[in-house]
Amino acid sequence: MIWVLFIVCAITATEASLSKCQQLQASANSGLIGAYVPQCKETGEFEEKQCWGSTGYCWCVDEDGKEILGTKIRGSPDCSRRKAALTLCQMMQAIIVNVPGWCGPPSCKADGSFDEVQCCASNGECYCVDKKGKELEGTRQQGRPTCERHLSECEEARLKAHSNSLRVGMFVPECLEDGSYNPVQCWPSTGYCWCVDEGGVKVPGSDVRFKRPTC
């Protein structure tokens, strides 16, 4: 019995010393023939380029081993420099194709965010968008419109809460500098704080009192 416990402990200790890549590699090697087996560096990190031999496909991955969108090809992609995770605008650029009568892929800034003005090459119409690339109502016209900064959903909710001065102690959402919701929201009059998603919706089970949760 003692020897069994010793062996179990030794195996557990060995698994604990393996990196995420090495653990996945060990798990895959014991699975089906032809299954994808991640490639790891001697240091235990994921190789920048991952290949699935039985399919002939290779792709680039980030530090966590997640595939970088748009890099998968038959052959060997250039992964000499790890590419940062794509923004929503960049992902839409990579996925959406030019179709006659459609506006085509969005225009992105150098930092990957949406250009404030988006234009349709098919009809010459342009319009303003918010930070998520959603068209702002009433801004579409022929030629480039002047896109003044519009309030985000969070900023509008915050302004509405502040304007309702009759309800003392009501919840006022917290917004980041770019107008998005702060991942941590608090209601001072109750002492509660919680996590929210990008749309400001509370993450179930994240409520804590008299402290800020880690979101």
From TrEMBL:
GO terms for cellular component: extracellular space. It comes from the Eukaryota. InterPro entries: Dev_reg/Prot_inhib, Thyroglobulin_1, Thyroglobulin_1_sf. Residues 18-79, 86-147, 151-215 form the Thyroglobulin type-1 domain. Residues 1-16 form the signal peptide. Pfam families: Thyroglobulin_1. SMART domains: TY. Its main location: secreted. CDD domains: TY. It is found in: Secreted. Coiled coil: none annotated. SUPFAM superfamilies: Thyroglobulin type-1 domain. Disulfide bonds join 21-40, 51-58, 89-108, 119-126, 186-193, 195-215. Keywords: Disulfide bond, Repeat, Secreted, Signal. This is Equistatin. It comes from Actinia tenebrosa.
